Amino acid sequence: xxxxxxxxxxxxxxxxxxxxxxxxxxxxxxxxxxxxxxxxxxxxxxxxxxxxxxxxxxxxxxxxxxxxxxxxxxxxxxxxxxxxxxxxxxxxxxxxxxxxxxxxxxxxxxxxxxxxxxxxxxxxxxxxxxxxxxxxxxxxxxxxxxxxxxxxxxxxxxxxxxxxxxxxxxxxxxxxxxxxxxxxxxxxxxxxxxxxxxxxxxxxxxxxxxxxxxxxxxxxxxxxxxxxxxxxxxxxxxxxxxxxxx
Length: 246
What we know:
- The structure is a single chain.
- By secondary structure, the chain is an alpha/beta fold.
- It has helices spanning 6-18, 22-30, 44-55, 72-85, 96-106, 115-133, 177-187, 237-244; strands spanning 35-39, 61-65, 89-92, 137-141, 158-161, 166-169.
- The chain has one domain: HUPs (Rossmann fold, 3-Layer(aba) Sandwich).
- The radius of gyration is 17 Å and the shape is globular.
- Its main location: cytoplasm.
- Keywords: Cytoplasm, Iron, Iron-sulfur, Metal-binding, Oxidoreductase.
């Protein structure tokens, strides 16, 4: 796919996607040409996208970031999902040399000590593997939703990712959690059992806790930090560029 004006291309795609259902959105994106990659964290919304890709046999690569610190339940869900939809989820993990260098500078669990150390850990375990997962891609599909946090409230259906030089598509941007749960129930989509234990958003085990009643969906991520808009850098351009540069 040749992109002459990437921002205009993203705006036009955003308008087209707004009028389609999820299957239509994914089918449209899959037909644009080039390599299309969906990165899944195996969270409930990502499982909805995976189900549609698998059910409709769409030519979209599915990848996950196997950080080395995931919950056992998440790892088991990868295998279960592959079997149910007869798909392959590509795993991209950190390099041992990067983990060793991080541990030497900060300590293996140094991410608890400072925001800098936490960003550095996300850079090694998530940002660098993501770069490998997206090599050669022209379109990146994510499970971002506007209802996940205040920081994501303006998430579009399509945008140009200037850091990675590709189109980023968020086909569930306008779905709320009740619509997600209804789809899962109606279609028998396998989900992480941790969701039923108070974990609406699930990342690495040391960095995720169950949320309390009334807390936002992502309150359990990096809960010891005070910044309510905290992210790992995957979806925040300025953080991504800073982490990768380290």
